[in-house]
Amino acid sequence: MSTAAVALRRPPVHLRHRRRVVNSVMLTLTLLCTIITVSALFLILGYLVWNGSRSLDWNFFTKLPLSPGETGGGMANAIVGSAKMVMLAAVIGVPIGFMAGVYTSEFGGATMGFLVRYTADLLNGVPSIVIGIFAWTLVVVPMKTFSAVAGGVALSLMVIPITMRSTEQFLQQVPLSLREGALALGASKWRTIATVVVPAARAGILTGIILGVARITGETAPLLFTALNNQFWSNGWNQPTASLPVMIYYRALSPYEDFHRQAWAAGLVLLTLVLIANIAARMILSRGAVASRG
Amino acid sequence: MATTAVNSASPGARSLLQRIRAGDEIAWLITLIFAAAIIGVTVLLVMELWIHSDPARSKFGFEFLKRSVWDPVTDEFGAMPFIYGTVVTSMLALLIAVPLGVGAAIFLSELAPPRVSNVFTFLVELLAAVPSVIFGLLAIFALVPLMRSYVQPFLIHTLGWLPLFKGPAYGVGVLTASVVLAIMIFPYIISISREALIQVPREQREAALALGATRWEATWDAVVPFARLGIMGSVFLSLARALGETMAVTMVIGNEPRIHASLLAPGYSIAAVIANEFREATGDTYLSALVELGLVLFVITIILNGMGRLLIVATTKPGTAR
Amino acid sequence: MRTALYMLIGCSAAATLGFATENINAAGATFPGPIYQKWFEEYRQAHPDVQINYQAIGSGGGIKQLTAGTVDFGASDMPMKDEQIAAIKKYHVLHFPTVLGGVVPTYNIEGVNDLKFSGPVLADIFMGKITKWNDGALKKLNPGARLPDADITVVHRSDGSGTTFVWTDYLSKVSPEWKSKVGSNTSVSWPVGLGGQGNEGVAGQVKQTPNSIGYVELIYAIQNHMGYGSVQNAAGKFLKADLSTVTDAAAGAAKDMPADFRVSITNAPGANAYPISTFTWLLIPDKFDNAGKRDAIKAFLKWMMTTGQKDCAALSYAPLPKSVVTKEEAQLTKIH
For residue A235, what is the nearest residue in chain C, using CA coordinates? Predict the structure, then answer.
């Protein structure tokens, strides 16, 4: 095509000008969107960090909650309670999720694998309050008491799908050559999986576990009517148990200044834990991915 | 997928192989049991919801979904105010979050320098991990006063003639709950949409640019349509997340089981009423009404999650523009 | 890695091993929340082997959890109805009054203190018939007050509440329209207003919302430095809730206390009686499977009726009249 013909087809100046304006406007708008969304999130969290760090003191970690009007109380029992229930949830949920992930990635047939994946997705999407209802019918009603066990079971239901998904995902990423090499050396399938495939994928699997645990540490709704709450230490596993997120909830809704202070402090502690876990998980993942390629 | 050991036909070798394979069979069985446990637990969950909502279901039938009364004294219950509150807050949250989130995703995936994009995306994804109760805490002390003192009076002043913005500036209410939800789903919309946009083959954008398109035109007309399904998937997933959100909403929605036209009025959501009233629901009908609400929420969330995942999966196949 | 594992096991073992304590769980009203918290803490310090964990989830919650058997005893500001008592088949529920308290109309208006309210006016506010603070009816009762031209934000309870029962019981007695339209119970269909969880939730909401009004137990208004109004009693006097006016409200009931202690003292006749006063009760089973729990609870109840009453005044609750305490000590023997 001759340049003259192309020149004849060039759109008029005002249209070109309009396109340029639209371009600049839309670019600016999207930049604005980014700034709005990111700064909304950061302002909000900055406020938490500011208020929380002003409210955090040694009492928070060592003392039990006191009655309203008395200062100097803390959330020591809530920290321990959360730790207990998250640990129980991990002990129950991680093996189930891991094994199920091994099944769907290594052993599963087409239909069974699809079924398991589908139901795990379903379970993952269940609203946390409905998980709470389920755990209540499953544990609280037969046991006739609110307990750390009930809270742990509720949280484990949330850990299972996350663990399963990441286990499956990272097992599948292990290259075929590694597996075939082991099989060629005479290893049986399960040995291959246990000694070669899983260790190769361990960074990713560990990441999934950490992210899952971090997520349930912050969950409140499933604990509201499973673990209830406790102003004292919960002895054993069959007693109502305090937890950080539930304490934050009640303290935030109360009218007392001191309770608000404690809510900020607890919020900061919880947020720090969750963010550290997430950052650690990502670091493990990136380092693990590099290592497995070597 | 790894291949299983070759099955030998000779009888002597088979017993040796059988012994080796026995280990594999056991491993298969064990992992199958755990996998089946997940299916079992989920089935059990649905069953328990079904069983425990039976008194309410048999008393009210499908009318339950349409009635607006919520009276524990006379044992008359209806889901409408809660469905309304849940749907309105979630939809409004999407209305706020999707344009902003997709705009930010477009910026981060197409228009920003790669280092800036990676840093921001990393930070935004971290924020997806922030627990709901912390958003609620911040909403009560930071957002509600803001709404009450500035935003709501402004809306009443300028748009108060619309029934949508009538009423006193409570601070708490449907609008505030929607804003909190919007802030909570930003990270999901941004990160999933950005993923979808990154998946689009570079040739698309480069071809458009080669034809003389401006950067915006290349993005909007050539890249975004490719990622449309993934972006819609992120919207559905965020919607499902917003519908099930409990704590942050409970803390700022005002806890009133009534349907108001105004967005500035208090309302109630399904998750919030369950959280507030479950422990005191005396009598079979009351408790089962709450469980039935949980069942309704469960069904809605499952459907939306399913649709969202389908859309996202559809876009991970390269070359799909439909 | 290994040390971390050992530490984890050690900590979990420590957390798991119980100490030889009697763990008792209770749930119920937020109305007496502050003094119950204080009592259970004090009692635990005096008797380290008994730990009573009280969760203030509202009177409705207390009754429900007691019926479900998930707590050892409950607490409520509304006496259990006959059907509710009959619903518990395992044992008969005994009501033990613990303290007397008053429900006050608390509000958040800049620069305005000491508002006077009459019963019908309160009913109209909570029905949504009086919508502005400078309404004629309020101005008539408070001629000197600088009432703003602002909408009244009503705050009520969103959970099943004994405080709600007392409030609505009073409103039903002074306003026939309230009685027919709304009625009285732990949970009613509120015509207007925002909902708060527990007395704390209502107090928190009112404290943070300008030009709002709610109803809370007296101590919540005092501890949070919130303004609360005086209410016109049956004799026509405007009274603020305090130790003497609340005690006076119980004077009649103290004399004619029914055997099961279920009584309402709202709108009491005395000249100096605060009209929205109430007893609050612990709901105790009369039969325990666990002897240790039974003895611990009986010991606590004895302590509560005698030593515990000394804590009332500091928290603005009125102690039980002596005649009531004597009758309660007799009821203690019914627990076996």
Answer: C18
Q: Could you tell me if residue A162 is inside a domain? A: yes
- Mean pLDDT score, C28-35: 92
Chain-wide mean pLDDT for chain C? 90
Strand C22-28 and strand B76-77: the pairing is unpaired
* Whether C41 and A237 lie within 8 Å, measured CB to CB: no
**Is B4's pLDDT higher than 50?**
no
Q: Which two tokens stand for residue B257?
A: 């089981």
Question: How many other β-carbons are positioned within 10 Å of the β-carbon of residue A73?
Answer: 18
| Domains of chain C: residue spans and CATH | 4-100+280-334 (3.40.190.10), 102-255 (3.40.190.10)
The pLDDT of residue A62 is 87
The ipTM estimated for the assembled molecules is 0.87
Chain B nearest CA to C248, separation (Å): 32
Contact A237 C12 (CB under 8 A): no
Closest CA to C241 of C194, C206, C275, C288: C275
- The residues near C158 (Cβ < 8 Å, ≥ 6 apart) are B255, B256, B276, B277, C195, C196, C197, C201
Residues C69, B216: Cα–Cα separation, whole Å = 65
The superfamily CATH assigns to domain B61-316 is MetI-like (1.10.3720.10)
Please count the structural domains in chain A: 1
CATH of the domain at A123: 1.10.3720.10
Mutate to test the interface with B, among C25, C55, C64, C192 (most CBs of B within 10 A): C64
Q: What is the band of C80 on the pLDDT scale with cuts at 50, 70, 90?
A: very high
Question: Measured in whole angstroms, how far is the alpha carbon of residue C166 from the centre of its chain?
Answer: 9
Which domain range does residue A194 map to?
A: 79-242
> Using CA atoms, how far apart are residues A79 and A61, in angstroms rounded to an integer?
8
Q: What is the reported pLDDT for B1? A: 43
**pLDDT higher at B216 or B292:** B292
For testing contact with chain A, the best of B134, B191, B299, B304 (most A CBs within 10 A):
B134
Q: What are the residue ranges spanned by the domains of chain B?
A: 16-52, 61-316
Between chains, do C51 and A255 touch, taking CB under 8 Å as contact? no
Nearest to C62 by CA among B267, B165, B280: B280
Chain C residues within an 8 Å CB radius of A146: 25, 70
Q: What is the pLDDT of residue B38?
A: 94
Residue-wise pLDDT tens digits, B96-141: 999 999 999 998 888 788 888 888 888 888 888 899 999 999 999 9
Question: What integer is the mean pLDDT of A103-120?
Answer: 89
The whole-number pLDDT of residue A60 equals 87
